[in-house]
Design brief:
By secondary structure, the protein is α/β, with parallel strands linked by helices. The chain contains 11 helices and 12 strands.
């Protein structure tokens, strides 16, 4: 069977994508992951040991020699590139590893692909944060929206997007770029908003909310995102960009209150909203993101299947049952 590479396959989205690929394709899956603090290391290690279709290689994507070995050994027919440092707060505190992984790592992947597998499909997974901030009266981001990143994280992802497009334009690589809205779902690392609120509420700890909590994000259930990625990989046009959104624009404070309401219903806990604490806003904090997914719906036929209510209930219950 043919081999598909998944960089960052032990991460939150990557783990979900690996399971989906095993179900929906007959490919072997080769996971390349640095296995950092944010990875599902134990789960992916167990999967690789028990499933002959999965190989796990602990490696950094900025290691050119490791990549050349992997490409030579496995001769991939395609790659889903998810590996990235992704937590905005961490990028503000220490930006170097975001540059090394998100920019240099993407460069090394592109160069290895160009040298050893120039005809394979290269799907680069990125973020809506590259577009910057949206005013309340502005229309949603489209694939034509100019880039205006606000944080070291979003700037590093914007840079990697431009590299991918340049390698398509200059060298003819079969690349696709996707820019997604905020993902949520099972297995997400505890530093992210939704798992953080769930865990801290269960422990009775303060729930820190940046600024006034009225920042707006579009929320995308991780299973829907994986479906979109597989559809884009199979049917997307070389050189194209596709925005992937959940059509769920919600203020952060409303997300928090929704989570607390579900926890109270499921556990019998009371007055969890008293744990909400407003803290100084994050530097460069974008006010609103919103994704227009009409292109991927028109060209490929994908649209989200989960409502936010369905997705958040499933997510909170997954964490409660861990």
């Amino acid at each position: 069977m043919a081999n598909i590479l998944v960089t960052g396959g032990a991460g939150f989205i990557g783990t979900s994508l690996v399971y989906r690929l095993l179900t929906e394709t007959d490919n072997n899956i080769v996971i390349i992951d640095k296995l950092t603090y944010a990875s599902n290391s134990d789960e992916i290690l167990e999967l690789s040991q028990n499933n002959p279709r999965v190989d796990l290689i602990e490696a950094c994507i900025s290691d050119a020699d490791a990549l050349r070995y992997i490409y030579s050994e496995y001769k991939p027919v395609g790659i889903y590139h998810l590996a990235a440092e992704s937590h905005v707060d961490n990028s503000i505190k220490s930006s170097r590893k975001f540059i090394e992984t998100n920019i240099i790592g993407t460069y090394e992947l592109l160069e290895t692909t160009r040298e050893l597998a120039p005809n394979i499909r290269f799907l680069h997974i990125s973020t809506d944060e590259v577009y910057g901030d949206l005013a309340l009266e502005d229309a949603a981001f489209t694939e034509e929206t100019s880039y205006d990143p606000s944080s070291p994280y979003s700037a590093s992802k914007a840079s990697s997007d431009h590299l991918v497009r340049a390698w398509h334009r200059t060298y003819g690589l079969n690349t696709i770029v996707t820019n997604c809205s905020n993902n949520y779902g099972p297995r997400q690392h505890k530093e992210k908003l939704i798992p953080c609120i769930i865990n801290r509420a269960l422990e009775g700890k303060e729930l820190p909310i940046y600024g006034d909590g009225k920042q707006i994000r579009d929320w995308l259930y991780v299973g829907d995102h994986c479906d979109a990625l597989i559809s884009a990989f199979k049917n997307g046009k070389a050189g194209a960009t596709y925005n992937i959104g959940g059509n769920n624009e919600i203020q952060n404070i409303d997300i928090v209150k929704c989570i607390l309401n579900i926890i109270e219903q499921e556990t019998g806990k009371k007055d969890l909203d008293k744990l909400i604490t407003y803290v100084k806003d994050r530097p460069g904090h974008d006010r609103r993101y919103a994704i227009d997914s009409s292109k991927i719906k028109k060209d490929i036929g994908w649209e989200p299947s989960y409502t936010f209510s369905q997705g958040i209930n499933k997510t909170v219950k997954w964490f409660l049952n861990r």
